[in-house]
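Subject: Sanity check before I submit

Could someone independently write out the structure tokens for this chain? I want to compare against mine line by line before I put it in a report. The sequence has 454 residues.
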Amino acid sequence: MTAPEALPNSAPPAARASWREGLAVYLQRRVLIVLFLGFSSGLPLALSGSTLLVWMRESGVDLGTIGLFALVGTPYTLKFLWAPLVDALHVPLFTRRFGRRRGWLVFAQALLIGAILLLALSDPARSPLFVALGALLVAAMSATQDIVVDAFRVESLPENEQAAGMASYVAAYRIGMLISTAGALFLVSAYESTGQTRATAWMWGYVTMAAMVLIGTVTALLATEPEQSARAEEASRGESAFVRVVRAATGAFAEFLARKDALAVLAFVVLFKFTDAFSGTMTAPFVIDLGFSRNDYAAIVKGVGLAATLIGGFAGGYLARRYTLPQSLWIGGLLQAVANLSFSWLAIVGVNQWALAFAITAENFTSAIGTVIFVAYLSALCQNPLHTATQYALLTALAAVGRTYLSSGAGYLAKATGWPLFFVICVLVAIPSLILLAWLQRRGHFASLGAARA
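---
Independent answer below. Compare away.
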């Protein structure tokens, strides 16, 4: 579906009204596609993360080992290495049938389904190494899907729809994560209630999650190839695969590193969501250790957490439109850091449903706000459709460093300090990113950025 061409001022009023209606439908459809793709991106992350950690904890795996499992998120930090292949290469059959972006999207989702099914067959108690391999494959396929979805989103939406698209994308992304956390935990309990063993119940829970990836596949099939992507594909027609890959890789890196204060920008990208990632790594084990049941946690995450995520996502979209980019980043950065104190309070209060509901609400609401604003910032950094996937993958891979590597010792820190002090430390780790934000703002970094555009 292509955007309707603007009509001249001399056109009859009825024709101009019809054109405006067509444009509105076009934009709404694009935002709706981005929303469902956001759900598809958010769904697999927890299956190799927090949901898997609950499965492992229930299977008796040590807290230190659980913390080390943050390392299976390595593909999210290295995805920029194969993003040039997504920008430049064609997938046999898929690209010809569906186009440059959609072909890769359908292909990546098929592999993702297979990886989740492989993880479903694992047993954390007996073979943690096999579990790690399965989780690593899920993360790799999920990261590949993210590469394509991010490029599709940035290239699909016109400049004036980026804020609405980002709010919808992030809200749906968080819903996908909630489905694969709280939803998966409810499913496991439901399967157990039918008389199945815990191991079998977990297996069928993951099989169900694999089936839900098809929502993203259907969305990809119903979408249309972004016009910017189609033009970039036409511009490189006739070039060899090697030339396209090299240009995507070198162009993305060279263009970014040529920016003023590029290294400081990269450090800020790494650290902005670190406070959120550091606490999030241990949230599920913390709640289970505190004495809440799996269903207690799932019910509050799915109910209160879902509402907070939706409200927070669109609140972030409002802030991104209402305030300047640095002002929005200050608001999001401070909110997501301070929200960790609600878990310190919960650790002191103990098993209290209202305290848990408050902590989960604060976490999901502030995290959604911070994520929407952060996505707006990353989108503003990506401007060239020839290597959108590569450049955005580089930025989001760096953002995942905090969740993957810097957070890998969170389990040992929690054991050494206790839960109340651990979440206070989670607040303090936000300070370096705020210092960098102030420095970049002073250096005029944000003034040099235009609005996020395709």
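---
OP: Matches mine. For the report I'm noting this point. The chain has a mean pLDDT of 82.
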